[in-house]
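Try it yourself: sequence plus 1-deoxynojirimycin, in.
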Amino acid sequence: MRHTVSYSALFVLTLLAGCAFKNPDPGPQHKMNVFIDSLINEMTVEEKAGQLTLYTSGWTVTGPQLREDYIEELKAGRAGNLFNAHTVDYAIELQRMAVEETRLGIPLLFGLDVIHGYKTTFPIPLAEASTWDMDIIRKTARLSAKEAASAGINWTFNPMVDVARDPRWGRIAEGAGEDTYLGSLVAAARVKGYQGDDLSDPTTILACVKHFAAYGAPQAGRDYHTVDMSDRVLRETYLPPYKAALDAGAATVMTSFNELDGVPASGNHYLMTEILRDEWGFKGFVVTDYTAINEMVPHGVVANEKEAVELAFNAGVEMDMQGGIYSKYIPELLEEGRIDGSRLDDYVRRVLEMKYKLGLFEDPYRYLNKAREEETLYAKELMDHALVSAKESIVLLKNKKAGNSALLPLSKSPKTIALIGPLADNQKDMLGTWHVAGDASKVVTLLQGIRETAPDVTVHYAKGAGFTGNDQSGFNEAVAIARKSDIVIMAIGEGHHQSGEAASRSDLGLPGPQQALLEKIHALGKPVIAVVMAGRPLTLEWMDENIPAIVNAWHPGTQSGRAIAQVLFGDHNPAGKLTITFPRNVGQVPVFYSMKNTGRPFDADNKYTSKYLDVANEPLYPFGYGLSYTTFAYSDIKLDRKEITEQGSLQVSINVSNTGEYEGQEIVQLYICDKVGSVTRPVKELRGFTKINLKPGESQTVSFTITSEDLAFYTRDMSYRAEPGSFTVFVGPNSAEGLEGGFELKLPDAL
Ligand code: NOJ
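Structure, out:
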């Protein structure tokens, strides 16, 4: 039977108590504290452990489903949170059980991997980062939150902010790419979008920054593999995006699967307590990744699951995702004095605080409104923004002139196009990895998009090949339609399952028989446009040498085909720029723009310099790269002074002109190199960018401000500061091109 003191009675009583003594208006924080303390006083140890437990509902899973009896656990108060339970109809009954059938009636948190949308699927996160547009990125997160919240979700396991420099790692698709500075801005934008300004607004959901920490650097690019790096690299390259997400207010943090310096993240006191709590002052709660506490047994740092719980708990981890072992062992460990009771209360408090802030104690059903759900799913504002985001994510990699003009954009005048490839008329795969609830039947395919955008064009379609194996039986049909067409568009790349979690690849070429198909079509001598859709950079060296136009569209989501067609036919001039380097081959990996110079920098005339015998050092397409249908010229870089001081700043300005025939957007990028440091510094680091729009013939002066903060790094003694000396500043269209200037940082003791 249900306990007579329900949380709602408690809620009223404690609010009254809070008002009755000391302070006539004790303030919302005080009211919350009084309420939660009273609730914790009511709780048994099992119920406390239950609040620190999260189970999948069994709807969708990404790992072993350990418990099918989660409903029993829920009713017994031993499962305070669920994930993968979405849609109002499904979740409302679970919430009702928690509220009406448990002793204290504490409402559930409902989590879900809302990674790039809930139903309306936006481009994969790596794609959206290519917009370099924080307004677009924030709006995607805001609208995703709104849509997911309408379907019962109040907690997303996103943003994933893991810096990743190895495209073999399939999860590179879920992050913002290789750069720490850009990744930090994207992390903050996503958190602000999900959480809005006020968690009590029922269109907001809790963000969960993941995977803490350094999950993006597994050895050999193999998922879940060992991570080992210096503290300097950890702090300088990998940690800042997590910190930026927390500074933006992220309510929760997820541990990573990997070990770091020999200790799995879920048991890593250095990460979870010393950095997260003591240094950064994080006040929310930490949830593990899926069964990550249990996995410390095979990691080999504990002998059994009970020891794993002790290690995780004492490292500073509040919540166990899907492992089921916090609820099992916390009571015993407490009894044996191996964990501390007041710490247990603190952990529970942090979880209850989030439920309180979301307004769930006031109304546990505030995310469960059927009418709201119906009017929000696939609403026009979501679909419109999905189109904007998809178009802005597309990166034009190559557009060679055919005769006097570039192959792209295509005219809409009557002609015959052969559209070939496994992504040409394919709804599911264009959604990309982790399209959690995205409905494939809503996806606009490229075939549909072209017909809609250029109705006078005749399109012949053939799939030609699949994503795996070597079945070439579709080649003849593809060749036949190519032969009778004026132009061929090849829609090729990866299936949705070929990137994301547990989808590392050792070969980054076009998977399956697609390369053979492409070569066969190319041999016909027709003008070929390659539209590459993938969750990672592919190795496109052959394509770059042989195919005149290459459009990298990533996996663009629900509006895929419409967005790509609008780019191909010039309704949208592409402006995306890569946030991840495209290697020439897998042997170059990891290759990223902010590498070190080495003591033997490349010199073609000297064998004993840092290089390969069989491939250039330079990647195929560098970080920051992306073309437009127009051209931009950079000129006249100016620094308003040659020196800055600790408090001072300098302005760098440059003139950018549109020298082509189309109106277009350009992402102007600023990089800095610290020429001499107490430790070696990268050859350049992004420190600013801006997206401008210019009409043909138009010019604009773009200015950036540099302060000493932009020059700070972890010096030899690990203090974070700028060192005096000479710096080079580069401004240009990508990390490999641009104009440069120089300045000095003068600090007091060096004056
Ligand atoms: C495992 C993934 O690593 C994580 O990112 C995700 O949030 C959880 N599964 C829950 O689905």
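One thing you can check immediately is this: The first strand starts at residue 53 and ends at 56.
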